Amino acid sequence: MRAEAQAHVDSINEALALLRRFLDWDRALRRLDELNARVEDQALWNDPKAAQAVMRERRRLDEAITATRKIESELSDTIELIEMAEAEGDSEMETEAVASLGELSKRAQGDKVKALLAGEADANDTYIEVNAGAGGTESQDWAGMLSRMYSRWGERHGLKVELIDQHSGEQAGIKSATMLLKGENAYGYAKTESGVHRLVRISPYDSAARRHTSFASVWVYPVIDDNIDIEINESDLRIDTYRASGAGGQHINTTDSAVRITHLPTNIVVQCQNQRSQHKNKAEAYNQLRARLYERELAEREAVANAENAAKTDIGWGHQIRSYVLQPYQLVKDLRTGVTSTSPSDVLDGDLDEFMAAALSQRVTGEKVEVEDVD
In degrees, to the nearest 5, what angle opens at C-alpha 33 toward C-alphas 27 and 35? Predict the structure, then answer.
């Protein structure tokens, strides 16, 4: 078999193995049978909310199992066709079959990522929060670049992007920003972006044209609906109001309409200033707080689960996940998965799919990649 064909086969088999591992294949088949039986029970529909949850789970499992079986069948048929073409010396048939393998490989990778988006909140809208690290203008400019990167990623995927809160830097960029991305699987795709992002470049703000390293943190958490119960004690909250401001410190409102809520037990702080009404800003900030607390709960569950197979995922300011080098060479490297890009301009314009897909896969395999850092 040609090297090109073998590479496609290896890629497809890798995707199939990950799908089966993620689904826990035998358990998934039994679970689908159970769900099909429940759907046929008319009593299920006495509780519409429970029925909808069953139908969603059934649809996800059925789609993943059907897609896996279809890929396996097409792979077997195409390999058989290639072997037949080689035996008969039909190079044209072989070339067409190899091309079909390439298309199947792309589809297998796409189906793999879709199947990985089956977490409890993966289908939800998402908040993305960006905060500049220490370093003044350099880090604030970098935080602004990251904020734009996620806006562009959202637009590429047809997501609706709303700026919830932003605090501009003194000279350039931002100190912090929170955006809301609305669309199917927004949180599922973006959740692997939480962590510290590092930029290495020749500073445009340094008259000596020296190389600078800047840091910014990204935090991703899902929007939650009324079906998810997050209990918050009012006595645990400190609520502050302040005057909303725009770029350059110019006031965009003459009243103290912006709202900041601090959850004292966890020290989680959320804020909103995009509405002129203090009441609306408070409601949005409260929604953010519920979402942050829910994400914290999901992260704790994942940490417990991953600890069982020694694959704990660290999330937080101290965990660097990706380096972006603009000078003296061009390279973006994910320090968890080893995925690289030699086109930082494309990545900073929202081309993040390969990085996200690899990080999602790693969450299933638990494999640690030894990656040499870049500087």
Answer: 100
Residue 366 confidence class, pLDDT cut points 50, 70, 90: low
**Under 8 Å between Cβ of 204 and 212:** no
Is 209 exposed, middle or buried (CB count within 10 Å of its CB: 0-12, 13-18, 19+)? exposed
| pTM for the predicted model, two decimal places | 0.70
Report whether 275 contacts 259 (CB < 8 A). no
Rounded to 5 degrees, what are φ and ψ at 136? 60, -130
- Please calculate the CA angle 173-177-183 and round it to the nearest 5 degrees: 125
Q: What is the SS3 assignment for the chain?
A: CCHHHHHHHHHHHHHHHHHHHHHCHHHHHHHHHHHHHHHHCHHHHHCHHHHHHHHHHHHHHHHHHHHHHHHHHHHHHHHHHHHHHHHHCCHHHHHHHHHHHHHHHHHHHHHHHHHHCCCCCCCCCEEEEEEECCCCHHHHHHHHHHHHHHHHHHHHCCCEEEEEEEEECCCCCEEEEEEEEECCCHHHHHHHHCEEEEEEEECCCCCCCCEEEEEEEEEEEECCCCCCCCCCCHHHEEEEEECCECHHHCECCCCCCEEEEEECCCCEEEEECCCCCHHHHHHHHHHHHHHHHHHHHHHHHHHHHHHCCCCCCCCCCCCEEEEEECCCCCEEEECCCCCEECCHHHHHCCCCHHHHHHHHHHHHHCCCCCCCCCC
pLDDT in tens, 152-172: 999 999 999 999 889 998 889
Checking if the pLDDT of 116 tops 90, the result is: no
pLDDT tens digits for range 256-269: 678 888 999 888 89
Give the CB-side neighbour count of residue 162, counting CA atoms within 13 A: 14
Both tokens of residue 108?
């297998």
Q: Is residue 245 within 8 Å of residue 220, measured between CB atoms?
A: no
